[in-house]
Design a protein that fits this description.
The chain is an alpha+beta fold. 52% of the residues lie in helices and 21% in strands.
Length: 115
């Protein structure tokens, strides 16, 4: 990824994270923006969110983000100076959950002394 795309991705991640934290309520589910991948033409952005909860809660988070997409895009447009505001696509980032499962397995096997 070139330097400009990285900067745009980081700016979107930072701003979306702040907007979501401030303006959306997900109840007991902890939701964070873990990453953003912007298309080369800057018209599309894949937003990876971490939602710590059971699968139905994660699905509810995605649905709420989809319903709020227009508002989120408008808020991003105010805060990040781009010719086009990317169309946001939300996806659950399962990397944190997978990492947590790996750590649980390590703990169960008693291999955590060196970790």
């Amino acid at each position: 990824m070139n330097h400009r795309l990285e900067r745009v991705s980081e700016a979107l991640k930072r701003e979306l994270g702040a907007i979501i934290l401030r303006e959306l309520d997900f109840g007991d589910v902890l939701v964070t923006v873990s990453g953003v991948k912007v298309a080369a033409d800057l018209k599309q952005a894949q937003v990876y969110v971490s939602a710590l909860g059971v699968p139905w809660q994660q699905q509810a988070v995605l649905e709420k983000l989809e319903r709020a997409r227009g508002h989120l895009q408008a808020e991003v447009a105010k805060r990040v100076a781009l010719r086009y505001t990317p169309h946001l696509h939300f996806q659950i980032d399962e990397a944190i959950e997978r990492g947590s499962r790996v750590l649980d397995i390590i703990n169960e096997l008693g291999l955590n002394e060196n970790v």
